[in-house]
Amino acid sequence: MDYLIICDPDGTHVTRLINDFSINPKNIWVWDSIPTHQSFLGLLQKKLGFNHITIDLMKENYHMKFDKVLSNPPYDDQMYVKIMKLLPKLLKKDGQFQFLVPNKILIPFTNAAKFAKDNFSIDRIDLTYGKEFVESIEGTWVCNVVGKLGKTVSKFLLILPNGEEVKTDFDSPNPVMEMNRIDFDLHNKIMRKDNKFISHRQGDINEKYFCYVRPTASRVKNKLRYQGITKFVEKDFVVGYKPDGSEIICKATKSGFYQVCKSKEQAERMLKIYTESELFRYISFCNIGNTFISKFNKEFLPNVEDCSYNSEQDVYDFFNINDDEIKHMQTVLKKQRDRHH
Question: What is the rounded CA–CA span in Å between residue 102 and residue 130?
Answer without folding.
Answer: 9
